[in-house]
Amino acid sequence: MNAVFGEIGKKLGEKWVLLLSLPGVLFVSLLTATAAVGGRDWARPEVREDLLHDAEQRVGQLSTHLTAAAILLVGLLLAGYGTALLAQVCGAAVRGCWLSAAPFRWLMTWWLTPLRRALWQARDRRSAAATTENARAAAATARNAISLAPPARPTWMADRMAALTTRVRNAYGLDVEFSWPALRTLLPEDLRRAVDDAQVAFERSAQLSGWGLLHLAAGAATTAVGWHGWPMVVLGAASGTTGWVYGRTSAGALASLVETAYDLVADDLVAALTGRPTVAEGEQATETLRKGA
What we know:
Shape: flat
Helix content: over 70%
Distance between the termini: 44 Å
Number of strands: 0
């Protein structure tokens, strides 16, 4: 599936960095506020008054030193931009974990895949042993939440993409990684746009979880030194969980759309690529076109 996900990265990578700069500024501002509060008990009224007084003094100083204010603003923007780049790295790492890409596959497969398979088998036995239709349906739903088939990858998303590759190969004899770029050029405009939208949704979900990972790391680090980092931990957990939920949904939608694309256009692709000229015929045609030049 590298070819499928690679298309969107080529088009939107730089644009996303710019769009992520604003969240980067917010992250830097939140981290700065956490450092300003430090380990003081900001729930006490006198502490809040001291913090507000310090903030007013600093704003007053900046209002009378415009050069310093401009330097501070530029520094904040640069820090936000750098944080956005770091968030992209975190998002790429999250996507690699979700899809069980190297090197995350080696770190996750040995323990997570057997765990998922054991859970799936336990729920499958529960479904088979159910005595009523409602109990059987509930057990099957719980089992399918892990995977539609016995898990072979560390994550649900990786299993879903692997299933897509297997189903396309079994149905049409095509390798998704090599055939997708060519097949995509044959898609109807509406279907191509739907696939692109699903790709964008998946990438944005990974980026959201990447921001969550960044906030969790910063919150844990500030908490470890005795500061009040728990707001960043809460925000990071919420962002990471939301991104994972959206990522799972968009990954399933993307896999279904790509499989639909093969169902509709695989015949056209095979017809366009079969019956190709031999190398000797191509060389003869080249000589004819060159006319001895």
